[in-house]
Amino acid sequence: MSLYNQMNTLIVDLDQELIERARLGERQALTALTNKYRSRVFTLINRIIDDSSRAEELALEAFLRAFKNLKSFRGDAKFSSWLYRIAVNAALAERSKKRVEQVSLDSLEHLPADQSSRPDFVYQGLFCGKVVDEALRQLPPHYAMALRLFYLKGVGYVEIAELMVIPIGTVKTYLHRGKRALREIISGKYSREELI
Q1: What is the pTM of this model?
Q2: Topology at the third CATH level for domain 1-99
């Protein structure tokens, strides 16, 4: 067994012990899990929403949600992956609240005359964004997370691998398979003309 695999097994075993103690209500175990993952959860959320004060609040909410649902954690995946998924979902929900801003009709008069600011182009962009968001929600969470981080937030392979706690090769696989699945979902629902 390689050194990487041995260390990974040790981390999983330590987490499992802390999880079992936390399930029994031991505060020290909850504190240990929080201290262990606080920095990564905060960084992950902050990369998605780019607001450090709100990221702190959302990180706390993610931990509270994880601890509240700790009994439902089956251990099929690593605890860190499960926790990061909760954190990413909280961040994406926050980001989607802020995504569409209201623009008054009066302010449209002052917009530059370039094509990208025309109302029909703005609508098309919002429509395509909505289509992609809906399709991403239908993907397995690990594919959706990798695609959002890479394409929407501009996070590189190495950082995604660190955030998702997976090898870089797996990141590339998730992006490749995720794009293919995304394309199938969208092309099955919309014609090419609707998206152009």
Answers
A1: 0.54
A2: Rna Polymerase Sigma Factor; Chain: A (1.10.1740)
